[in-house]
Amino acid sequence: MTTLLTGDLIRAARALIGMSQVDLAKKAGITQKALGEFELGKRQITARANEKLRRVFDEQKIQFIAANVESSHLEGAGVRWKPSQPNSGLKTI
User: Are 50 and 9 in contact (CB under 8 A)?
Assistant: First the structure.
């Protein structure tokens, strides 16, 4: 199961690639209103929207990460450019 993106992660990834809400929403096939509400935490992201956004971010070589701990809670969640060599100290989410 793929972890649902949080508003903070979406906003950080969008900033990293320098894409506006309008452009990201259009590229992902969702509305800008929905994207804005996901980012602000006003609406829970759906599995379908999550997958669409992840597809766009993957195309842009974006990777979502968290500390490699044995817990369902995401610690140290963040976003980075996909490295050419994986790092065993982090887990992708």
Answer: no
